Amino acid sequence: MSGFRTSELTQKDILSYVALGDSFTEGMSDPYPDSDTVPEGRYRGWADRVAGHLADHVGEVRYANLAVRGRLIAQIRDEQMEPAAEMAPDLVTLCAGGNDIIRPGADPDRTVELFEDMVARLSATGARVVVFTGFDTNWQPVMRHLRGRIATYNMHMRAVADRYGCDVVDLWSMGCLSDPRAWSWDRLHLSPEGHRRVALRTCEVLGVPVAGRWDAPWPPPEPRAWRTARQEDLHWAREFLVPWIGRRLSGRSSGDGLGPKRPVLRPCRRTDHRDEP
Fold first, then answer.
1. Distance CA 86, CA 88 (A)
2. pLDDT score, position 274
3. Does 54 reside within a domain?
4. Could you tell me the CATH number of the domain that includes residue 124?
5. Which residues in the chain show pLDDT less than 50?
6. Is residue 251 part of a domain?
7. How far apart are CA 93 and CA 167, in angstroms?
8. Phi, psi (5° rounding) for residue 265?
């Protein structure tokens, strides 16, 4: 196994952490509670939450988040890998390939080759590398047909993780994320509660103590009339699905013209425990 192990992470005086990826790692649909004091459009997300939890147990955490929404795996490799390696971090989280896998005709074999390129380069720095499987889309009727492709990519990814001694956060097995309340209105990005649960699960893999449980049962859902559910489906198709298809056909991305929200390592503040259970 490479990099720093659990006890070494929480015993360091100064810990550097770099997060790589797309909208999932950028934190889409999880706005900061103090949105008046952060730049417009800045999201929190599970990675920022993990950095905050680490700061509760380490003298100083220096954190960078290079993720940008909409990025394909080749873009993540070309834009984020070398800057991350040059920072020589103690800890790296890498989630990449999701935007590739959901595209028509996607090739999981080719996608994982690019993924392994990044894992090999990042592991060579001595960093502890944490990777993430894809989600189980069985709860989402429109994307249920992608389950086989995602499962294939997950198995390839686990083999890469085994070869390079990476930790794995298994999002597929997180049954709590099959609840619609774990997702935002666009049904592709996590809700704030979904991000919180992923952060808790990631901390569990890292061995970082936290107050809450990622697998805590959801409260009973409020009953919804059939007509209301269908109206929500129509709203989703009009406001999200059609524009998303339009961007795919035109080669545009929601992240065009955007850069990372934390491009350099800088100190991270401690967790606001009022946000915890």
1. 5
2. 44
3. yes
4. 3.40.50.1110
5. 1-4, 6, 37-38, 273-275, 277
6. no
7. 9
8. -70, 125
- Both tokens of 198, joined, read 């992923």
- The residue segments making up the domain with residue 68 are 6-217+259-275
